[in-house]
User: Fold this.
Amino acid sequence: MKKVCYTLGLVVVASLILTAVPMSVAHGASVKNIQSTQMATGASSLQGVDAKIVQKSQAYLKNVTGKSYTFSGAKKWSIDNDSGWDFSIKGVEHSQVMVTKTGELERIYVDQSWGELKDSYKQQLQAAFKNVLQEPEASKTPEKVNISVDKSPKYPKGAVDLYTKIDNNIIILREGKVLRTIKLLAKQEIDENALKAASGVFAGLEGVKQGTLVEPSQLITANGKTVYSLVFGTGASQVFVNVEKGTNKVTKVAAYELQDSVANYKEAFKKMKSYSEAQLLKNAAGHSKELLKVDLTGYKATLDPQMTAVVHFTKSGSPALIGSYNSKGQFYELEFKEYRE
Assistant:
C-alpha cells in the first residue's frame, strides 16, 4: 500500500462541487506511483468473506460514525503485494470500507445526513462555520456530511476528515480543526490580474494550448495561504494553474496531457528511471523560469525515494519546488512546496 498515493480527498471535493462520484473513481491511484495494480474485482456479495473480518470492519465503521451499519456487498482488491476486501454499505449509495486480508482498516468513506451525525461532529462543524463563514451561511445546516478515514501514508494515522458544503463554500475538517476551505467562484469573481498571470504560463508549455476556463473555479485557503485554483480546457487536455490571491504569484502548473499513458507505463517507467538528477535539474531549469519565475541556478535536484518521476529542488535560503516529469524528461507539473496541499 505504501507505493500508492490515493486522491480520496479530491474525489470527495469533486462530489461536493458537481454530483456524487461513484466509489470506483475513489479507487484511482496516481499513475506515477503504480507499477502493477489490480483493483477491486469480482461479484459484489459477502460470500467467501470471513465473518470475523466482516464484524471487525463493521466495528471500525461504528466507531468512526457512531452508527451501526450492515454491508450490502464485498469485492476483492489487490495492489502490488497487498490484498483485501472492499465493502459497500447497505443503504448508502456512495460508501466504502476497505480492509486488508487480515481485517486491518485501510479506508472508510461514508455520507451521513446532518441528523445522523455524531453530536461531537455537529459541534465541530458548527464552530467551524462560525469561524470561516459569514451570515447567513454561518448559521445554515448542511444536508449531508462526508466522513473519511484513510490509512495511506499521505494522511495522519487514524485522522477523521469531515467534508461538507454550505451554498458555494466547502469546509474540510481534520480531527475537529479546519484543514481547508474552498469557495466556488464564477469567472467574474476572479481577480483579472490573477487570470492574466494564469494565462501567461501557456507560453512555457510547449505544445499545450490554452482552453476555456472551467467554471466554477476555486478559491482555496489552507495553511494560512489563499490561492485561486484554475482549470483550463476539457478532458485529458486540462491544465491546472494555481495563483496566489493578492500577489498574483503562480504557485503551481500541471499539464497532465504531457503525462505518459497507463498503456505504455512499463516502457515509460524504464525511461523515467534512466534520468540522472543532474539531467533533470537541467531539464527543469527552463520550465521553472517560464512557469514559476524561479531561477534554478545553485539548486540541488533530488529524486523522491518513494514516488516515481518526482523531483525535489532545494537551495538554502530559496523556495523549494517539487516537480513531476515524463519519459521524455519533460516536466509537466511544477509547484512551490510551501503551497503544496
About this structure: The first helix runs from residue 8 to 17. Helices lie at 8-17, 23-26, 51-65, 119-132, 192-199, 265-273, 277-292. The radius of gyration is 21 Å. The longest strand covers residues 37-45.
